[in-house]
TrEMBL record:
Taxonomy, superkingdom: Bacteria
Keyword Nucleus among UniProt keywords: no
GO cellular component: plasma membrane
Family stated for the protein in its record: Belongs to the UPF0324 family.
Topology within the bilayer: Multi-pass membrane protein
Keywords: Cell membrane, Membrane, Transmembrane, Transmembrane helix
Species per Swiss-Prot/TrEMBL record: Streptococcus gallolyticus
PANTHER family: INNER MEMBRANE PROTEIN YEIH-RELATED, UPF0324 MEMBRANE PROTEIN FN0533
Listed name of the protein: Conserved hypothetical integral membrane protein
Bilayer-spanning residue ranges: 12-44, 64-83, 90-111, 117-140, 147-168, 217-236
Length: 245
C-alpha cells in the first residue's frame, strides 16, 4: 500500500501530461502525441521542483507501463509478418550496428573522448537508446554522470529524428515499407520510434507502426551479444591492467 502511494503522484503526473499530448497529437498528426508528451515533459521538468515525490511513479510508468504497452502492441503482430520483416531487415540492422560502433570508436580516438561515454553513446545509438545504455553501463562500470550524459545525447537525437524523419522520408520518396525499415534502424528508443511511425502514418494513411516495431525489436536483440562482448573485453582489460601492476 505504501509503495502504491509513493508511485501514485508520478503516475498521475504522467497521465496529466499524456492527455494533452494525446489531444495535440490528434490536432497535429505530423508531430504525433509521443513527441508532444516528450516536449511537455521537458517543459515541466524546468518548473517541477519537488521531483522526489514523483520519481517513483515516473520510473514505474516509463519502465513497466511502457514495456506493457510494447507487449500489447506485440499481440497485434502477425508471426508470419514478424519472421518476414525480421529476416529482411536483419542484414541492414547488422550493417548499421557495425558501422555505428566503428564510427563511435573512431570518433572516440579522434576527439579523445571518454571511453565509457563513447561506448555508451555508440551502443545507445546503434541498438536501442536508453535501454542499451542502461544494460551496458554496469558492464563497463560507467559512472552515473557518464550515463546521464550519454542518455542526454541519445534523447536529443531521438527528438530530432521524430520531428525530421517523416519529412525526410518524403524527400527521399520512401515507400511505407522503406520508411519502416529506415525508422526502425535509425531511431533509437521505442517511444521515439513509435512517434516517428505514428507521424508518418497520420500523413500517409498507412500502417508502418507494425513494421517499425518488428525492425526495432529485431534490432534490440543485438544488446545480448554486444553486452556479452563488452563484458569479456572489460574482463580482459582488467586482467591486463592487473598484470601490469
Amino acid at each position: 500500500m505504501i509503495t502504491i502511494q509513493k508511485k501514485l503522484p508520478g503516475i498521475i503526473l504522467c497521465v496529466v501530461l499524456a492527455l494533452p499530448a494525446w489531444f495535440l497529437g490528434h490536432l497535429f498528426p505530423l508531430i504525433g502525441a509521443p513527441v508532444f508528451a516528450i516536449l511537455l515533459g521537458m517543459l515541466l521538468g524546468n518548473f517541477h521542483n519537488n521531483r522526489n515525490q514523483t520519481t517513483d511513479g515516473i520510473t514505474f510508468t516509463s519502465k513497466y507501463i511502457l514495456q506493457t504497452a510494447v507487449v500489447l502492441l506485440g499481440f497485434g503482430l502477425n508471426l508470419t509478418q514478424v519472421f518476414k520483416v525480421g529476416t529482411q531487415s536483419l542484414p541492414i540492422i547488422i550493417s548499421t550496428i557495425a558501422v555505428s560502433l566503428v564510427v563511435a570508436f573512431l570518433l572516440q580516438k579522434w576527439l579523445k573522448l571518454d571511453s565509457n561515454i563513447a561506448i555508451l553513446v555508440g551502443v545507445g545509438s546503434s541498438i536501442c537508446g536508453g535501454s542499451a545504455i542502461a544494460a551496458t553501463a554496469p558492464v563497463i562500470k560507467a559512472k552515473d554522470e557518464e550515463v546521464a550524459k550519454s542518455i542526454s545525447v541519445i534523447f536529443l537525437f531521438n527528438i530530432l529524428a521524430a520531428l525530421i524523419f517523416p519529412t525526410l522520408g518524403d524527400l527521399l520518396h520512401l515507400s511505407n515499407q522503406g520508411f519502416a525499415l529506415f525508422a526502425g534502424t535509425a531511431v533509437n528508443d521505442t517511444s521515439s520510434v513509435t512517434a516517428t511511425a505514428t507521424a508518418w502514418d497520420a500523413v500517409h494513411g498507412s500502417n508502418t507502426l507494425d513494421g517499425v516495431t518488428i525492425v526495432k525489436l529485431t534490432r534490440t536483440l543485438a544488446i545480448i551479444p554486444i553486452t556479452l562482448g563488452l563484458s569479456f573485453y572489460k574482463a580482459y582489460q582488467d586482467s591486463k591492467n592487473g598484470r601490469a601492476k
